[in-house]
# Entry
Amino acid sequence: MVQVQKKSNARLWFLFHSWLALPIWAFLFFVCLTGTIATVSQEIIWVANPDTRARQPDGDPPLLGYDAVLAAVNRNRPDAVVQSIARPVKSQFALTVRVTNPDATSETLYVNPYTGGIQGSTSGFDFRQFIRAIHGWLLMPFNGSYNLGWYAVSALAIPLLGSLITGLVVYKRFWRGFLKPRLRFDKGSRVFWGDFHRLAGIWSIPFIAIIAVTGLWFLIQAALADNHVSFSTAGIPVVVAREDVPPSPDGRAPQRLSLDQAAQIASRTFPDLTPTFVSLPANAYDPISVGGRGNYPLLFEELSINPYNGRVEWSRRVSDRSGLELVTESMRPLHTGDFAGLWLKLVYFFFGLLLTMMVFSGLLIWTKRTAQATAAVIRRPRPAAASPVAVAERSAP
# Structure
């Protein structure tokens, strides 16, 4: 009798333990879903907001240079100070020009790359920033360190990686799923979702490994940063030497290189570099920053150019990074898939959706199994208490 009671209590504790996993399942599903949407968030904006599209006029005109774009923005918005000009990876998107207004507010302008016309602007939190923030750190504020949301999301990489490893161990000869995939529709929902869970897991092995490993790095990165541990070799920001700044007796700004000239210097210095963004000097001692991707598409390369004599004051190529930096700085683009155009983002979106549905199917299987076990315990008749006579008879010598 006592042994039966102990088993019943153990069963109740196990069911209680199982139900406590429900928030973790739901949280993992939420993070996977928002991450999948974040992969194509920029494309969603392109569909929803015509201002972000690069409308090419008739006659197949060429793309404007940086100087022509700067002149067009200054002509249309003479009260704004241009900070930077960026060309998106995908040619169907408008240029993004960051400006500062007289009231010290910042704004991003969408500029047509063929005509220089300002098609629209945004000054707040757009959908792309919102979905990435809610996926990456649950919209929690940063107060000088990584917030709890960042730790909570990145910590999910541990059970995700553990599930991948244990799944490969439990599912014997998993590679058969590539050769003979099985998805039964006529055996009920339980069999269907079980087949789907296994099949989605098999076909998503490389993607799950990438997401889990990069997510684990985000957790380590936050812990290192909050403990002031850094292994960066980038050095401190450069400034233009005082003697390089031409005197200006009449108070006018000294003559500077044009943005196109700076981009040409960058291309001559690094022939494999395609300049995709330029940052203008904020003061007389700031260089012009030019950057883009080279032969290694995961990382940006950047140069700081003296705006008065064209000398390259600082540069950072892929080869300038240490082996550890090369690996760790590749984690973010590997996690987001935003480095090789639309086709790769669609691949990430597909496998992200597959991972999300795999988590959903696991949640359904687990919930149904736990609910059935709970219902069985509730319906199970309790053993009748033994009568005093029977007890006395069993205990008699």
